[in-house]
Write a structure and sequence with these properties.
209 residues; alpha/beta; seven-stranded mixed sheet; 7 helices
């Protein structure tokens, strides 16, 4: 049995919006902090791992600590909203391509007919309400061919176009390989937040399709 992560004491409550079935999906995670600030931050990562209403995971705790303790730009944030490129639970990102291939793009992203409103509509709505949007989906741990064949670049484009008007940020001063925003699983708490050159990133991603 793996390590069990508890939420920090300054987390008031956590509200997951999930969908049962095989595989299980989580559309978003709302984390309310014990803080007087009234702002909301939206983080967009790759896919859900283990976090529920009562049990956290390493990545979610890293985001919470970064927001509450380490980042001056987020000091007025009292609510964290977590969305992902993909809604399916999978602890090993290298296996994500297989899930997408089996279940299809719309199911994997939470935009199939079983979800109302679809995940991207909810994501757009939360981006509108957020004072800060942070992209943090990382580079998949699979081959470049698998990245392309599973539609990962296409999904990045879909999400970038949804949030481009909200001036998103990324962790640290540079993108991995000039393409991928850093993932919080390996966070350095000294990292600052940097503006994303959305137009330039879209152009780079389109060249990979």
């Amino acid at each position: 049995m793996g390590r069990i992560y508890k939420y920090p004491s300054y987390v008031k409550n956590v509200e997951p919006l999930g969908v049962g079935g095989d595989p299980c999906r989580r559309l978003c995670l709302t984390i309310n902090l014990d803080r007087r600030g009234s702002k909301q931050a939206l983080f967009i990562m790759m896919n859900p791992s283990k976090a529920t209403a009562t049990v956290s995971d390493k990545t979610i705790n890293a985001i919470i600590k970064y927001t509450y303790e380490k980042c001056d730009d987020l000091r007025e944030v009292s609510k964290i909203i977590v969305f992902n490129l993909y809604a399916v639970y999978e602890t090993a990102s290298g296996n994500l391509a297989d899930l997408i291939a089996v279940h299809g793009h719309l199911f994997a992203t939470g935009n199939d007919k079983l979800i109302s409103p679809p995940c991207d509509e909810m994501l757009s709505r939360e981006a509108e309400k957020s004072s800060m949007v942070v992209i943090a989906w990382g580079k998949p741990q699979c081959s470049s061919g698998a990245i392309r064949s599973c539609g990962y670049y296409l999904r990045i484009l879909e999400v970038l176009k949804l949030i481009k008007a909200h001036d998103p940020y990324h962790l640290g001063t540079s993108l991995v390989d000039g393409l991928f925003p850093r993932h919080p699983r390996g966070i350095d708490y000294s990292w600052s937040l940097s503006k994303v050159d959305v137009a330039g990133l879209i152009q780079k991603i389109e060249s990979r399709l």
